[in-house]
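User: Could you check the structure of this?
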Amino acid sequence: MGNERARILVVEDSIDTNQYVQDVLDRDGYEVLAAFSGEEALEMLRTETADLILLDVNLPGMDGHQVCRRLREEESTRSIPIVFLSGAYVGTEDVARGLDLGGDDYLLKPVMPQILLARVRAVLRSREAERALARRNRELAALNAIAASVGQSLHLETVLEQALERTLEMLDFEVGGICLADEDHGKSVLHKYRGVSSQFVAAVRGTHATDGLWKRAMVNGQPVFLDNRSHHPVMTPALRQEGLKAMGCIPLKSGQRVLGLLAVASRQYETVSQRDREILVAIGHQIGMAIENARLYEEEQRRRRQADTLREVSRILSTTLNLDELLRLVLDELANVLRYDSAMVMLIEEGYLRVASAHGFATEESFEGLAIPVGGEFLVCDVIEHREPVVIADAQQSERWLPHPQLASARAWIGAPLIVKGEAIGVLSIASCQPDEYDGEDVQMAFAFANQAAVAIHNAHLFAETQRRIQELALLNAAGRAMASTLELEDLLLVIMRQAIEVLGVEAVSILLLDTASGDLIFKAALGGGADNLKGRRLPQGMGIAGWVAQQNAPLIVPDVGQDMRFYPDFDLDSGFITRSILAVPLIARDRVIGVMEVLNKREGRFGADDRQLTESLAASAAAAIENARLYTEVAQAKREWETTFNAITDGILILSPDLHVVRANRAMAEFLKTTPQALVGQDCCRLLWCCHDLEAQTLAERTAWEGKLRLDEVHEPRLGNRTFLRSIYPFWGAQDELMGMVIVLKDITAQKDLQAQLVQSARLAGIGELAAGVAHELSNPLTSILGFADLLIQSEDIPQSHKEDVAIIMEESCRAQEIVQGLLDFARQSPLQIAPVDLNRVVREVLRLLQRQAELAGVVVEMRYATDLPWVMGDARQLKQVLFNLIVNAIQSMPNGGMLTISTSYGPATTRQGKFVRVRVRDTGVGIMPEHRQRLFQPFFTTKPEGKGTGLGLSISLGIVENHGGTIEVESEPGRGSCFTVLLPARLPERVD
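Assistant: Sure, the predicted structure tokens are below.
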């Protein structure tokens, strides 16, 4: 360093001496600063810098030695040379003390100018030599640090990052960058840069290697340095725009091969010094070797990753058998083996190549509709045909490239066959957006990878097939368990449909049953979109895909319902569900079609033969379930009818075990014994009826069992209300002629005995008894049914409490019906009517409340029309209620398939009688009455109902009650269109009674 740039601080309290020293130094070209105390010097050095300090020892306040100590304690002033000036006598101890405190020299005043300048120059030269040595050491250390830094990592990006940072830090340059050579395309690629704008980066990125600057640096392998006087057609405008004054470009070599370029630039220095140039060249050699090592390492790592990836594919065979997961892993691992921008796995399905998995496509357009015939004309078909990889440099230049929008950016392409046991199952498609991307080594790697992937895919297919078979068996087993656990048809079909949706992967399932009378198909059960709107709907005979399947007794797959004329779209319009594809199979039971099972819209893929086979198995289970449920319903109905009949019999009945204990008792027997039927079960019959195991009772039972025939006798039982019974004892036998038990019937004949005692009134009482018995029989059947079913329902745990409260109302009203029976018996005994004002509107409402449920179950819609201000009639409300009860029950029973029941009240003159009458009309839309039966409607015991369904006494009794009230019943009927019964009662009250 020359003295022209040195700055010297003079610290002297004497103004004259201070000025003298300043003048001497100034004439020699130094820049001089002046301070007159130690405190002022310290304060000045906080903001100013100095290359040398001339320090007086004897200063006011803080002396020179103290100032020196303070300067050496501060980091910013510690390295500034200090020369002491002393005007007093200086001994050896004073000099030693000053030098020990950090001084560099000691001068005595007065000092001659030549001596002063010589000492100043000597100190500055020594300081400059120290600085040069320190700088050289720092440079060597920096070079070592750079070499160590770039040598610590074998990752190329890390090497470049560290090299650039260390170089800029070492040489104090603001701007820098590293370009690497792209030998395939003759360009340099800017990898790392610091301190420049994006416009500058764009100007130099991708510059062709034949351009002058790069040609000299990269092609010729020579360093290039630019300054303000240089003129480069490309770089100079960019340098000046960035404010750069000097730039150096150093080739990064490995041997004689140029790998890239290190560039540094400064906005401060006018040129790159020779020392910096030498350092840059040395750094370039270090970076070049580090780049080569990193590339060799990365190449080795790439090959190792390729081998590891192939082993990973093999590992996948034992870690996952899920096809979707496997295909994803295959394409993920492929990226570690080969460079690609997009890749696909295409598998052969039913003679077509379809995309099973894809990576790297920019748009969201689906490959779902892409299906390539295996023997087609496209390049991918050659891979299947020859079972060898196919590679092309630029796919877009080939007329046989697949014309799909998502494949428009593909250039270089490899197609590797997926081969298992010599058979091609698909193609691994690998594409790059750059042409000429792949070489022979890449093709071999792709082929090896595809072989590994093919084995994995094949195993996944086998596993999926096994799982599907297991699921099918599980589904069939579940259906079998459901059939064994319940005979409720709806519950069973729900289980089957849920299993079908899960295993088949469909959106909806429906089961239609055949109505043998009309030939229509009725939706019995459905699950999925819009299912609630389908249940109970009818599909006309032969209509729709289901209708075709039922008629042809054959399964049918429709992949696109929009292309099939048999599809019946009305149900989609009503339910809002959109049907795309259907698999329908017939339900067959006892060699006849009883319905159709449909599965709709497979979520993934299309319906195939496996789906059809599984659905047929499910349909077989469903058909068997339906038949079993029907049989169960018939048996349950027969059981209920038997129990109803058993409890409806007015004679007391006990069913006994062989040891004479009660197995079952009917309601009449329980009433005789003032208990419940359930309480009688398990009791000893002899003790129950005869109060002890007396010899007579025991002998009677044993003789009956031994003789094996009916035994009749008449007994008088004080315990049973002091009544007389006709006792019948019946033994019954098993299939092996073993005694299964006995039946005891107690028929109450007390009334008969009393009638026999009243010979005078026998004829009349016999007629009345016959009528009473007929009335009791007519009413006891429905009454017993109501009470029986109500009792069963109220004891059931399957209905909610709110419904039990409704059943309790039914039982309460049924008990009131018993009072009506008693009233009829009273009438038969000619007991007087209980005449009072009666509101017929109220009577109709009460009867309808009792029969509302029966009408709903029969599918009958009831319409009520009440006349306002209807006059009241004089009569017996209980008997009039029984009349309306009989008429409404008959009307409901005349409509077996449902219909309309209209009940209306009115007031006015009659067509057949004088005066005004209150009318109650009961009109139905039932089967009507044949003309030949009209004259016999009100005859006792005449009925058109099937045997066991009626006694023929209801209308006869009803007419008798109405006539006793001074009225009549009129009938209008037309076969097939319904009937109308009109009850006419005289209006004997001018107005309503409050």
